[in-house]
Design goal:
about 290 residues, alpha/beta, Rossmann fold, six-stranded mixed β-sheet, about 20% strand, globular, disordered N terminus, binds adenosine-5'-triphosphate, binds magnesium ion
Length: about 290
C-alpha cells in the first residue's frame, strides 16, 4: 500500500512530469470472489485479473453488479467470499492510490474548480504553492485553464466531469475506478471526454476499470471488455486495436460488438455495421 508520502512523491502528479517518469499501474485481481451486500451477493465466483496500466471496461445489464465490483476494488465493500488483491496483497480498505470517479457530480460545490483539484494534493501533504501549481497544470491539461476560479455550478456538466477527472488524476493514482462517468453527457461532449481520457491517461501508467452502459464507449476505451450478467462474470474479451472510432466494419470489432450487445440483453443488429462473419460467436474467454 502506498503511503501518503509516496503519493506526494509520485512524479505523475504534474502533467509535465508524467511523461518523464510514469507511475506504475496497480495490478488488481479477484479470485473466486463473491461480491455484494451480506446475504445478497450480486456476483459470485468472479476470477478476474486487471493488468497494470490496462484499461478494462465493464458492461452488463442494470443491477448486475458493475458498481458493486468497482466499490469492491475501491476497498469500500469487502468481498463476501474469495479474495481481492492489489499486486498480490489483500485489498481491504480505500486508499488514495485508487481514485474513484462517479457519474454524478462529486465536486464540492463551495470550492472553485482549482480548490477541488487541490484537495487530494492537500491530503497528500503538498505545500500550498506546489498544489496550486499542480492543480492549475491539471486544469490546463483538461482544457479548463480559464475556468479554474469558477465554482462548479458556474460551468457545464462536461466541464465538471473534466474537473473531476483532473482531481482524480492529480493524486497520481495507480488505479482509476470510473463508474459511468460520462453517462449524463450528450453524445458529442461524451466523445470528447473519451478522447481526453485516453490522452491524459497516456503516460500515467494508471490501471483503469471503467463501467459503462454504452457498447461503443466500452469498445473505444477498453483494451479488454468484461461482461457481467446472471450473477457472474460471463467473460473478458480483448478489443481489436488500433483504437479507432471509425472502424465500424472491422469484422473482429463487429463480432465483439454483437457479443457485448447480447450480453446486455440487446439482440438488435447495429444499424451501421455489416453482419458478423460465421464463427464470430465464439464462447467468451476469461
Ligand atoms: N446499498 C445497497 N443495499 C442493498 N443492495 C444494494 C445496494 N446497492 C446495490 N444493491 C443491489 O446489488 C445489486 C447490484 O447492484 P449494482 O449497483 O452493483 O448494479 P449495477 O450493475 O451497477 O447497476 P446499474 O447499471 O443500474 O448502475 C442489485 O441487485 C442492487 O439492488
Ligand atoms: Mg451502477
Amino acid at each position: 500500500m502506498t503511503s501518503s508520502s509516496d503519493v506526494c512523491r509520485a512524479p505523475g502528479t504534474a502533467p509535465a512530469a508524467v511523461a518523464a517518469a510514469p507511475a506504475r499501474g496497480a495490478g488488481l485481481a479477484l479470485r473466486g470472489a463473491a461480491l455484494g451486500r451480506p446475504g445478497a451477493p450480486a456476483l459470485a465466483g468472479v476470477d478476474l485479473d486487471v493488468a497494470p496500466g490496462e484499461i478494462l471496461t465493464v458492461v452488463g445489464p442494470s443491477g448486475c453488479g458493475k458498481s458493486t465490483l468497482l466499490r469492491t476494488l475501491a476497498g469500500l465493500l469487502p468481498a463476501l467470499d474469495g479474495t481481492v488483491e492489489q499486486d498480490g496483497l489483500p485489498l481491504t480498505a480505500p486508499a488514495a492510490e485508487r481514485a474513484l470517479v462517479f457519474q454524478e457530480d462529486a465536486l464540492l460545490p463551495w470550492r472553485t474548480l482549482r480548490a477541488n483539484v487541490e484537495l487530494p494534493l492537500a491530503i497528500a501533504g503538498l505545500a500550498r504553492a506546489e498544489r496550486r501549481t499542480q492543480a492549475e497544470a491539471w486544469l490546463r491539461r483538461v482544457g479548463l485553464a480559464e475556468q479554474a476560479r469558477k465554482l462548479p455550478h458556474r460551468v457545464s456538466g462536461g466541464q465538471r466531469q473534466r474537473a473531476q477527472l483532473a482531481r482524480a488524476l492529480a493524486a497520481a493514482p495507480r488505479a482509476v475506478l470510473m463508474d459511468e462517468p460520462f453517462g449524463a453527457l450528450d453524445a458529442q461532449t461524451r466523445a470528447g471526454m473519451q478522447d481526453l481520457l485516453v490522452d491524459v491517461l497516456r503516460g500515467t501508467g494508471a490501471t483503469v476499470v471503467f463501467v459503462t452502459h454504452d457498447v461503443d464507449e466500452a469498445l473505444f476505451l477498453g483494451d479488454r471488455v468484461a461482461l457481467l450478467g446472471a450473477g457472474r462474470l460471463l467473460g473478458v474479451r480483448e478489443v481489436p486495436r488500433p483504437r479507432d472510432r471509425a472502424a465500424h466494419d472491422d469484422p473482429a470489432r463487429v463480432a465483439l460488438r454483437r457479443t457485448v450487445l447480447e450480453s446486455l440483453g440487446d439482440r438488435r443488429e447495429p444499424a451501421t455495421a455489416p453482419s458478423a462473419p460465421a464463427g464470430s460467436s465464439a464462447p467468451l474467454k476469461n
